[in-house]
Amino acid sequence: MNIGLAVHRNAVRNPKSEALFGSDSLSYEELDKRSNQIAHYLLSQGYEKGQRVAVLLPNRPEILELITGISKAALVYVGLNFRLGLSELEEIFHNCTPVLVITDTEHLKQINELSDIGEVPVKDVDTEEWNANLDQNSDELPAAVDAITPDDDFCIVYTSGTTGKPKGVLFDHSRSLQHATVACIEYEIEQMSRYLIQIPHNSSVNITIVPCLTIGASISFRDSRNFDPLEFADQIERDHVTHSFLVPTQLMRLLDKLPDSSNEKLKSLTTLGYGSSPISPERLKELVSRFGLIFNQLYGMAEIASIGTILRKEDHHFGLTSNPKLLASCGQPSLAVNVRVVDENGKTVQEGERGEVIFSGPHVMKGYFRDRDRTDEVLVNGWMHSGDIAEVDENGFIYIVDRKKNLIIRGGLNIAPTEIENVIYRHEAVLEVSVVGVPDPEWGEAIVAVLVLKDGFETQVNEIKDFCAKSELTSIKVPERIEIWEDLPKNAVGKIAKNEIRSLFWGTGRQV
């Protein structure tokens, strides 16, 4: 089985079923035929199995056609985030050497500015030429699909670069389909599901797109460039959306900007996933109180296709009713994934001890594309090393402490920023916060908190500092410095860019 055949199978079984819903609807039969035309067009250009096709587009309907069509031609889909800077795109193009770039009129200039583009053809999906080229090709399933093996490469997902240069995470058809099976079960996706995708397509290809295409569910794309809570809620109500996924920053905006009177607009939602960065237990309680037990927290990383652990809906219930500590957990290992927390020697830590989270399973990446050294650093004897520090309780629930690289070293003590951030998030005026370590001549690092206030709230930094001092934080963990900003920098997938914040205090010199 491969991704292209999965779509074709759904077109045969349920030809009129919606693959795409919303203003630009598309049946599975129509998706199958259009992706066949794309595949035939690509094959007619002489591209060979395993070559890469880069797609630089915002979220738009053509994404489904391109993912499926590129797959059917036995080529490799490389989705790119349009928010990437020129230098990041240069690095990605140098690494993956695409044979074709597909973009739109809005981003054509961005592509043409790349020095590495050379003689690589660039196609604009907004032109009549693009559509005319496709229309000239057969809409029958290409023979190339039958020659695709499970081990053939399917996609490259470039990391957001929070720890340095973007890395190309390589998946074959088998790994992506294995993850799709897990995602459909854990995330309760079925044929009748209607999934609203808010995050960029390059990040959601394994998380949501492939699972939906595999099971035959329906998808709609929202423009990931802006998140408007009111428009999001309106579409959920209008299109009877059952599933979506948001990053915590978007959930906070949903809480703070969606009027209580609009809660009913979300009543069709059965599952709202969240993940990619921490969320405080206090805000999580607010979310469940307002919108009900619809939340699943997913913890993982691009290198394992997405899902490593899951805090299920029932876990949220138990966290609210009998075990509040659960709301600080990222859940238990998901299906088909082995998860361990190990010390520096690779030995599993005892309950309550801290160690690094590592994963193994059938949907761990093949490796970083053309980067054996960095692959060998993180993929050891089949175990993917996450770089995240965590604890495990007696029931196997995992509690992320922080990333290794985010730990603040103060007077020889390792301090987790997340612990401090969770306390500050309890303050009623705080919308977003990020805690970093900055140079300190005596202690090595001092603790700085930068935060954004909710609309309509005012507060003084001393009030926040007093709030922390009166909490359970020990005195050494109370921020020495607090700054209020209008906004916090985000990376391409909406995570708070802690590295950027840290660099403003450290400059370009050594960072511990």
Account of the 3D structure:
Helices cover 32% and strands 24% of the residues. The strands form six sheets. A seven-stranded mixed β-sheet has the order 6-5-3-4-7-8-18, sandwiched between helices. A hairpin with a 2-residue loop joins strand 22 and strand 23. The longest helix is centred in the N-terminal third of the chain and has 17 residues. The chain is globular and about 70 Å long. The N and C termini lie far apart (47 Å).
Shape: globular
Number of helices: 16
- State Rg: 23 Å
Which architecture name of the largest domain does CATH use?
3-Layer(aba) Sandwich
Number of domains: 3
Q: What level of helicity do the residues show?
A: 25-40%
Output the CATH class name of the largest domain.
Alpha Beta
Strand content range:
15-25%
Category by helix and strand content: alpha/beta
Major pleated sheet: 7 strands, mixed
- Classify the fold: give the CATH topology of the largest domain: Rossmann fold
| Arrangement of strands in the largest sheet | 6-5-3-4-7-8-18
Query: Any idea what the CATH superfamily of the largest domain is called?
Result: ANL, N-terminal domain
How far apart, in Å, are the first and last alpha carbons?
Answer: 47 Å
How many β-strands, per DSSP? 26
Average predicted confidence as pLDDT: 92
Low-pLDDT stretches are 508-512
